[in-house]
């Protein structure tokens, strides 16, 4: 079971791989679209990679609710519990 | 009385694609053209989709016209006379008549009459569905030669101001002739459907809605005589394509990578033995991600016709294959993995020997 800090760090790594954004830029309160400029296709790639990394399932309809990095961290954390 | 003995057609062992043809309509639509209708930029569209231009057909060019252009080239390439065709299959979702089919008119124009002729509605998987049927018909001895056409006039079913799919789409036709071969030239088809995601890509509404609107509009005209308002509403009511891009992207990459792998396995081929990889040209990022998931080696040429053709649904794979062969004639005789996927959802994949 990963802690929220570990999930954030893992997510930052995935975002970095997909977009080239510095991992430090991936903070809990950042919006994927508005702050990090991540489009819907990149978001899906990040979601699929996160599913694999954290062993969780993130349904398509849930992806639309993941507005901020914190939303994603909390969802993954909840799904792991 | 003894039981009568029925005869069945003798089976053939092998088939291959004997010839390929393409038709690209004249009108070139640039990203700057598209940006008159949606708030975007050439750079954004290139980055997000890989599309630079698309071909579109004018009002005077029909689905059957485009199909005919591609079919004639495929027949010439195959060295086959249209009269030898044992079936004409047209995969399309944009022939504007529910009946009669585009295929029967095409067969007549080509001089293939009385070959059986029918349309296939399998959207962006339509070409691979057609190849599966052509292969089966020839191997079963039902036909000697089969013409398979993928053709779309998607410009008739787009809304220029819509952002999920319209700006990606183009028009065109690709055709192949399938016939008997000395060695295996068409691997087993891995195909299927997933109607649980029927809503992921498709038309905004049905023909019945147009009928109901027309009735309402006529009443409206009687009451107020306001024809201009009726015209506006009618434009809105014309059914156009939509997609849930995120859902489709996930399915197109991670589910379709599995299907493509199954097609390779079924053919007994590994990715490094391919000469070409031609996935449906939906979006350059789907093409790139699929190639990554399948670990397609650098030695394999990848169909990237989307750059100049846009997404042409059923036509995209034969168009992209045709272009690869034109630019690299040495590919002839090599193996190509092709996979179509789209509205339905439906999918089909096979490894073929390039003509």
UniProtKB/TrEMBL annotation, chain A:
Keywords in alphabetical order: Cytoplasm, Fatty acid biosynthesis, Fatty acid metabolism, Lipid biosynthesis, Lipid metabolism, Phosphopantetheine, Phosphoprotein
HAMAP family attached to this UniProt entry: Acyl_carrier
Domain EAL: 1-81
Domain Carrier, first and last residues per copy: 2-80
MF terms in GO: acyl binding; acyl carrier activity
GO BP annotation list: lipid A biosynthetic process
PTM per Swiss-Prot/TrEMBL: 4'-phosphopantetheine is transferred from CoA to a specific serine of apo-ACP by AcpS. This modification is essential for activity because fatty acids are bound in thioester linkage to the sulfhydryl of the prosthetic group.
Localization in the cell: Cytoplasm
Cross-referenced PROSITE patterns: CARRIER, EAL
Entry-linked Pfam families: PP-binding
Pathway: Lipid metabolism; fatty acid biosynthesis
Function per UniProt: Carrier of the growing fatty acid chain in fatty acid biosynthesis.
UniProt cross-references to InterPro entries, sorted A to Z: ACP, ACP-like_sf, EAL_dom, PP-bd_ACP
One GO CC term on file: cytosol
Protein family membership: Belongs to the acyl carrier protein (ACP) family.
Name of the protein in question: Acyl carrier protein
Residue(s) carrying O-(pantetheine 4'-phosphoryl)serine: 40
Automatic annotation (TrEMBL), chain B:
Domain Beta-ketoacyl-[acyl-carrier-protein] synthase III C-terminal span(s) in chain numbering: 264-353
Pfam families for this protein: ACP_syn_III, ACP_syn_III_C
EC class: transferase
GO cellular component: cytoplasm
Subcellular localization: Cytoplasm
Catalytic activities: malonyl-[ACP] + acetyl-CoA + H(+) = 3-oxobutanoyl-[ACP] + CO2 + CoA
Residues of the active site: 124, 280, 311
Gene3D superfamilies the UniProt entry points to: 3.40.47.10
GO BP terms: fatty acid biosynthetic process; secondary metabolite biosynthetic process
Segments for region (ACP-binding): 281-285
UniProt similarity note: Belongs to the thiolase-like superfamily. FabH family.
Stated name of the protein: Beta-ketoacyl-[acyl-carrier-protein] synthase III
Organism: Arthrobacter terrae
